[in-house]
Automatic annotation (TrEMBL), chains A, B, C, D:
InterPro entries: ATP_PFK (IPR022953), ATP_PFK_prok-type (IPR012003), PFKA_ATP_prok (IPR012828), Phosphofructokinase_CS (IPR015912), Phosphofructokinase_dom (IPR000023), PKF_sf (IPR035966). This is ATP-dependent 6-phosphofructokinase. It comes from Rubrivirga litoralis. ADP binds at R26, A27, A28, V29, R30, R160, G191, A192, E193. Allosterically activated by ADP and other diphosphonucleosides, and allosterically inhibited by phosphoenolpyruvate.
Length: 329, 329, 329, 329
């Protein structure tokens, strides 16, 4: 915890967009304005920080965005920010603009980058976990996770209709490069016959056996939910592995990669409330003199976690849910 | 905790239906079948228990219901069950059917009634919190709450469109007879200008002042979310109170009572996972010899709470959210 | 058909808002800009016309509104416009602003008012049918009808869940003051046991008989869809009429008035395409020298209808659908 | 038109499933039952016809399916039915079951197959157009088209959120092997910058130029909607073609193939009404002695078209919509 005078803060989003980022921006801006702080929106994340793409914000700037997906401040990749020169330019811009502190909304890449900036240039940053992957330590849920989950589940419900109509096997790939949070919850919520996640070994033999026994016994459809970061490399790879086995010749197998639709859409109630709490909480943390922390919600309460821990510590899935998924399918 | 031999259990839903009840039934049935237990579905709650409206259930009986709103076992009111004779008849039917224990899915009325049955006739019961109102102590969320919340919020988003188009004041009544859980989350999630809940005093003067200042300053729409159990008695009563003030003559005020649509619909991902955990958890509690408890999820973990506490102890809203709602609107 | 030089047009929405109005505004603006015309947005309908509440519009002004409910130009009632003085003021403002012609988007009230303006002050107007009620002659569907229908149907699906769970009778009131278009399509689409619409006599005796026979025979839920403009006066009145009969004492009857949620929400694909065609079509009609007409889609093609006919001629429901509804329920 | 005694009909679905097929089955069954006809459900299309997979149906068999996607009668491919022997077996089964006539619900493959059966074995068939592709001559819309369109559009709206957040170019592939109905309506409804359909030549040079000029001028996101049957071969092929041009090195381009989610889901109001009309209409056509025809809705009215015309004649897209799409984007 550091002490710092606060008169003007910057807010930005970075990394993959997540539904609820706008609700978070809105809460941060309104909470700051209520305390008499000036607020600068930094557009396109670190790229905009380097280019000085700044916009003054007030209560009205964030009207009517609570329910919108995406991020009005936009996001972008920035190779230049990976260099010390890029970060120096960004820090200079922040100083020139009179920005005392930052609210950074994004995933682990965003928080890591902000930590470099903080360390090298003494910039005060508080982070908000904004990523559909739910893979940040220090918060029970990240902004966007609940919405992405419901979008994926809605698609799985639709696929179930067509799978049932044709007694097909569907391999549905959902997001989750390193974690199975979306896949696991979708699997239970969608009644999937099998869920494949990065946290568990993918034993192709066992998968085949399970599918064949299900399809044989019940002569019906099966849905396998696959996290994109599954060991074998996603739904298409699983399909290839299955197709090498002649036992699967008779099984009408289809792949559906849900992809980018999981990022968009109006946030759910839960994501809007979470994002509102976190956005306001980040400003409150700054006001209380905190820096280098991410604000999260743990067991219902706001909690600060040192930035570094958010990516270095592993947030684990609930293995009871893995068992439950197998028991109920 | 009592000890009891378990070979055959009964499952039923009672009270107001809630999205996710089917997912809970499915999980209880499949979890029980996996342990070699017989399962009897009791139709129409306590009414069916008295009439012996029983149906044998297996894994297939609960296929394809996970995503459906309502309850396949139906629910009903039973005045007869309020009498000792009614409960005696119910207990006799259970014995005759060879039912050793019950999984009761419903709200506080359901759990209270089951406690009478347990006390008077030594029936083993474990409860699952199924009610959109989220007003049971012993679980962070009840089955159906998240879905009802999203349904209400979706309606509020739609009303915002028309409120904005006409610069109108809308009083939107959501469910919550004794508690403001839905109203409060909807208020934050929908960006409501004001939220009126049973837990807070309703000062008509303050309400008027707030609305008038908002409408004057910004010449725009306002949405007030009112819990049905608000002190004044719901949205229509608020409107009446406002209309007595000539200052409101110029304000185009409309009432929208969302009503029963909040009970239906396909459950959200969160409700499906919660209901699956609780249904399976209830059976596990029975297997471990528990009785007279409700299974809930507290801080992410399954937890048993003595039945009586679930309604006698007050589950409180998060007053930080009340403040947040006021700050952000 | 009159001839007129066209360099600058005004666009406005009036009356009850309808989903798709923004798509219509967008199409009119972009179509006009593509022809080199200037475009002025008139805010809050006729009220804004009298107050000179004008805003210059270009392609960018209508970016990202296609999918939004409500109307960015807002709508309002104007008592002043009902007076010759009010209309004279409006006409003077239009002349002062250099507006040669108007695209009026709204329902019958909007088109009637614009006809007064046209007649008295020689203002060139082409209308677009924007109302969820679908009650304008000269177009197979009005902008917003399809969305309102799907919103109402989604609510009826939800109510079906809870009606089934409790074997209840639900009286669901949908919009339609003078016409049963929404009610009839909702009734067929929702599998309603009965549909009551303004176009048909409401014989309370026959209604009772039908409901009693359904509930008796099948001991299940029933849904009666009631247009707000039903002869008896809506769902609450029907309920009262039923409650006077002791035969209904045993039937758990509930009323749900869907109300304003039917006006909002993101427009359906059909409404977006329709609104885009009509907005562009209105500008094309102006370019071709037409005036005093409404542009509609009849049997798939754009068609112009003299303004007066749109409200003086009666658009009839399809009586085959009434029969179909009865046959299938 | 042939004359035939009618006492017992068969109903089946075949080919790709489409939302609304269940509503069509329900209407056909209930309409037939109301006329005193017996109804046999043939499961899994022609495969079930050959295997004698028949199920007796009555009013209750089709309760509560109106709102469900997929088809309760299931669908399947049948290579055996492509042989004269297979069809002979099917015809024998129909005779043995006492089935006088068939209602065939499906796309062009289904109708062609039924025509072979009719020709070779004098089986009376009336068809209902059930396919999301909308590519059958003789009906303005096919069952499932409106739902698929709205599902695709909802995905495009979500993709727009993330495209905007990152200023990306998205190539979104929607269904439509031979026709651009879905793509074109989605393009207009989603405000796509470009729509590529099988009916139009795909000039890669022109595409590149258009995209580059859009992205340069406005430095913003672009969405290109591609029908799967586009000349170049879908979104992935387009991407490859673009990536060969160094001008696209700077443009962050993503592909999203919506795939099977377009087949499922609860049907829209429009699809439910259409399917109900067609299912009932097919039975009425049989009752009136028709055979070898498909029932469609043309300009709002039921219309019979000789089976052969439904696939041999080309249903054309509305080229005015192609122009409109270009004008408004």
């Amino acid at each position: 915890m550091t002490s710092h005078e606060l008169t003007r803060i910057g807010v930005f989003t970075s990394g993959g967009d997540a539904p609820g980022m706008n609700a978070c921006i809105r809460a941060a801006v309104r909470r700051a304005v209520a305390e008499g702080l000036g607020v600068v929106g930094i557009r396109r994340g670190y790229a905009g920080m380097i280019e000085g793409d700044f916009v003054e914000m007030d209560r009205q700037s964030v009207s009517n965005i609570l329910q919108q997906g995406g991020t009005i401040l936009k996001s972008a990749r920035s190779d230049e920010f990976r260099t010390p020169e890029g970060r120096a330019k960004a820090a200079a811009n922040l100083r020139a603009e009179g920005i005392d502190a930052l609210v950074a909304i994004g995933g682990d890449g965003t928080l890591q980058a902000s930590t470099h900036l903080a360390t090298e240039h003494d910039v005060v940053v508080v982070g908000c976990p904004g990523t559909i992957d739910n893979d940040l330590f220090g918060t029970d849920e990240t902004i966007g996770f609940d919405t992405a989950l419901n979008t994926a589940l809605d698609s799985i419900d639709k696929i179930r209709d067509t799978a049932d109509a044709h007694d097909r096997l569907f391999l549905v790939e959902v997001m989750g490069r390193d974690t199975g949070f979306i896949a696991l919850a979708c699997g239970i919520g969608g009644g999937a016959e099998l869920v494949l996640i990065p946290e568990m070994l993918t034993d192709v033999g066992a998968i085949k056996e399970r599918i064949l026994s299900l399809m044989a016994a019940q002569s019906r459809s099966s849905i396998v939910v696959v996290a994109e970061g599954d060991e074998l490399g996603g739904a298409h790879m699983i399909r290839e592995a299955l197709s090498e086995d002649p036992a699967f010749d008779q099984i009408d197998t289809r792949v559906s990669v849900l992809g980018h639709i999981q990022r968009g859409g109006s946030p759910t109630a839960r994501d809007r409330v979470l994002a509102s709490r976190l956005g306001a909480g980040a400003v409150e943390a700054l006001l209380e003199g905190h820096a280098g922390v991410m604000v999260g919600v743990v067991n219902g309460d706001l909690k600060l976690t040192p930035m570094r821990n958010t990516w270095s510590r592993k947030k684990t899935i609930d293995y009871d849910l893995v068992q439950l998924s197998a028991l109920l399918s």
